[in-house]
Amino acid sequence: MATKWTKKRRSRRIQAVVFVIALAVFLFSGYQLLKIYLEYKKGSDEYDKLADEAARILSEAEEGQGAEDGGGAGSSPGQKAETGPFPWEELDALMRGENEDYVGWITIQDTQIDYPIVQYTDNDYYLAHTFEGTENAAGTLFVDSNIPEGMEGKNVIVYGHNMKNGSMFAGLKKYREDDFYEGHKTFRVNTKTGFYTYEIFSVSVVSPDSDTYTLGFEDDVAFLDYIARMQERSLHDTGVTVEAGDKIITLSTCVNKNVDRLVVQAKRLGK
Fold first, then answer.
1. Which of 2, 33, 186, 228 is a good FRET partner for 43, with 20 to 30 A between their CA atoms?
2. Number of folded domains in the chain?
3. How far apart are CA 62 and CA 65, in angstroms?
4. Count of beta carbons in the 10 Å neighbourhood of residue 126
C-alpha cells in the first residue's frame, strides 16, 4: 500500500509532467504566432516597397493633371508629354519589369488596398505567392485566368485574400457599413491603357458559386439583366446606372470563415 510520502511524490511528478507539456504547448504556439507575424511582415514590406515605387509615378501624374485641368484622383487621363511615355505606361513598364504578369494597380482610399494586380494562367498560383514570386499566405490580387481580355474584359473579376492584419482585400469589409460606402463611392484602377475611376453600383455577400462570377454575356440584354440582379442583392441602394456599353469590375474576398464572398462591383467611368 502506497505511503503518504509516495503519493506526494507521484503527485509532484504528474504536476511536473503537466507543466512541461503546458510549457511545450505555449512555446510551440508562440513560435507559430511569430512565424505568422514574420510571414505577414515579409509580405507587407514587399508591397510597401512596390507602393513607394508606384506612388512617385502616380503623384507626378496627378500633379500634371492638376496643373493642366484642375483634376486629381479620378480625373480623365492627361495629355502625353512632349517626350517620354504616358504616366500609366511608365507605371506598367516599371511593374512589368518586376513581374511580367502585372496588369494593373488598384487604390482605395482609407484602406490598405494599394496594390498591384496580376493575371496568370491559373487561379491557384497567386493564392500563395507574392508579386515577387515568394511563397506567402498573403498572395497577390489577381484577375480570373479565364478572362482573355484581362483588365479590358466586360466583367473583370479580381480576387484577393481577407488577411487578419488588414492587408490585401480585407479592407473591402468596410463597404458593409453605410458610412464608409457613402464616403468612398469610387476607387481608382491604373492599367497600361490609362488611369480609371470606378463607381460602385453594388456591394453584396454571395456564395462562391454565385452568378456574380459570370464572365461573359450573350448580348446587351443579358448584361443588363445581370446588372439588375446584382443591384437587387446589394447592401446599399447606390442609385448608379450601368449602361450596356459599360465595363465593370468585381472585387471579391472571403468572409464568414471562408464560407461566403464579399463582392464590391463598380463600373468604369469613361470608355
1. 186
2. 1
3. 5
4. 24
Q: How many helices (DSSP H) and strands (DSSP E) are in the chain?
A: 4, 8
Which value, in Å, is the radius of gyration of the alpha carbons in the chain? 24
Output the pTM of the full model: 0.79
Residue 213 identity: Y
Tell me whether residue 15 is in a domain.
no
Look-up of cell digits 503527485: 11
The answer to whether position 5 is within a domain reads no
d(CA 195, CA 193): 7
> Tell me, what CATH number does 212's domain have?
2.40.260.10
Per-residue pLDDT of 97-138, as tens digits, reads 999 999 999 999 999 999 999 999 999 999 999 999 999 989
**Is residue 25 in some structural domain?**
no
* 208-243 per-position pLDDT tens digit: 999 999 999 999 999 999 999 999 999 999 999 999
**Distance (Å, whole) CA 150 – CA 165:** 29
Cell reading at 14: 504528474
Using the CB atoms, write b or e for 189-204: b if 16+ within 10 Å: bbbbebbbbbbbbbbb
Residue 174 placed within a domain: yes
Residue 56, phi-psi category: left (phi > 0), alpha (psi -120 to 50), beta (remainder): alpha
Can you read off the three cell numbers belonging to residue 82?
512632349
Question: Mind giving me the DSSP string for 90-110?
Answer: HHHHHHHHH-TTEEEEEE-TT
Distance in angstroms (rounded) separating the CA atoms of residues 220 and 227: 10
Phi and psi at residue 116, to the nearest 5°: -75, 155
